[in-house]
Amino acid sequence: MAEALCLGEALIDFVADVTGVTLAECPGFRKAPGGAPANVAVGLARLGMSAAFLGKVGDDAFGHFLADTFSAAGVDTQFMRFDAEARTGLAFVSLRADGERDFAFFRNPSADMLYRPDEIPEAAFDGCRIYHYGSITLIQDPSRAATLDALRRAKSYGAVISYDPNLRPPLWPDLDVARNRILEGMPHADFVKVSEEEAEFLFGPGNLSAHAAALMDRGPRLVAITLGANGAYLANRTAAVRLPGFAVQAVDTTGAGDGFVAGVLSELPSEDPGDISADDLECIGRLACAVGALACTRKGAIPSLPLRSEALAFLSEYG
Questions:
Q1: Phi, psi angles (nearest 5°) of residue 299
Q2: pLDDT at 319 (0 to 100)
Q3: Exposed, middle or buried: residue 167 (CB in 10 Å: 0-12, 13-18, 19+)?
Q4: Vertex 203, ends 188 and 11: CA angle to 5°?
Q5: Residue 78: its pLDDT value, please?
Q6: Whole-angstrom Cα distance, residue 308 to residue 48?
Q7: What was the pLDDT predicted at 234?
Q8: What residues act catalytically?
Q9: Between β-strands 222-226 and 11-19, what pairing exists: parallel, antiparallel or unpaired?
Q10: What's the pLDDT tens digit per position in 124-177?
Q11: In angstroms, rounded to a whole number, what is the distance separating the alpha carbons of residues 194 and 196?
Q12: Burial class of residue 187 (count of CB atoms within 10 Å of its CB; 0-12, 13-18, 19+)
């Protein structure tokens, strides 16, 4: 069975054909599979870890396209569910000249929002060493109940719990609800990754050390703050490291953070994440930054996630 379970939304990203335009101005879009937890599952599979995706899509052409894509990437999809009533979620993504994105989501509701605890069999947790989730399925029930129930079961199997808030303001009723609900998800996790912008959203202005401490005060034993092109900061209670970024020509940053998460999770030792040494944090962070950087060099999230051999070759070029 899979070492890593990634639960959450799977959707279709329609990525703008050209950069530097609004969604309304864009002449066309290219279909790309996506969804943050699904991206992490594919990232892990490409980095050599057995991974399964837990979630629900529509029983439609897009949903089956997603399942086929994940399976072709090496992800175990036997526990995916298909909803005959709700459609697969869609996101239209406009790319600015700097590679950053604007989103428009179509979920009224989408199938992932209707995922229920009883749709997750106990067999999914056999051999589970890592359970990864995000905040999107925490927005409302029943997907919230499914996320937390699976988390509880994964903990009972001794899994390390990984959480990526992955803030998407348009999906929340308002920003105060988003902040409170995202923070409610923190105490369950052993590892949390946030972007620099997300850390400031949650805790206000502050330096990396202060934001990392604020995250760990909520319960996580290992935290990572990604800094875009400037690298990342990783910390636990005994060590902290600041990793520089890698210089690449950014084409599309979609999936870079998910690639980073996959890089960290693929390298986590069996020991307590809170006991990882500074040297080991640096090694973990370098690989994660390399995966994130490579994910920026191609369009789309899943199509851009590198193989382990590609990430290691990229690192060797930098010495």
A1: -75, 150
A2: 60
A3: buried
A4: 60
A5: 97
A6: 7
A7: 98
A8: 258
A9: unpaired
A10: 999 999 999 999 999 999 999 999 999 999 999 999 999 999 898 889 999 999
A11: 7
A12: exposed
- Spatial contact of 282 and 276, defined as CB atoms under 8 Å apart: no
Nearest to 60 by CA among 91, 89, 34: 89
134 bridge partner residues: 164
Contacts of 279 (CB under 8 A, 6+ apart): none
Nearest partner of 70 among 45, 36, 105, 48, judged by Cα: 45
CATH class for the domain made up of 4-312: alpha beta
At residue 99, the pLDDT reads 58
Which amino acid, residue 194?
V
> What confidence score (pLDDT) does residue 160 get?
96
Euclidean distance between CA atoms 120 and 157, whole angstroms: 15
pLDDT score of 122: 96
List b or e across 250-286, with b for residues whose CB sees 16 or more CB atoms inside 10 angstroms.
Answer: bbbbbbbbbbbbbbbbbbbeeeebeebeeebbeebbb
Residue stretches of the chain with pLDDT short of 70: 96-101, 319
* SS (HEC) of the chain: CCCEEEECCCEEEEEEEEECCCCCCCCCEEEEEECHHHHHHHHHHHCCCCEEEECEEECCHHHHHHHHHHHHCCCECCCCEEECCCECEEEEEEECCCCCEEEEEECCCEHHHHCCHHHCCHHHHCCCCEEEEECHHHCCCCHHHHHHHHHHHHHHCCCEEEEECCCCHHHCCCHHHHHHHHHHCHHHCCEEEEEHHHHHHHHCCCCHHHHHHHHHHCCCCEEEEECHHHCEEEEECCCEEEECCCCCCCCCCCCHHHHHHHHHHHHCCCCCHHHCCHHHHHHHHHHHHHHHHHHCCCCCCHHHCCCHHHHHHHHHHCC
Give the pLDDT score at 170.
87
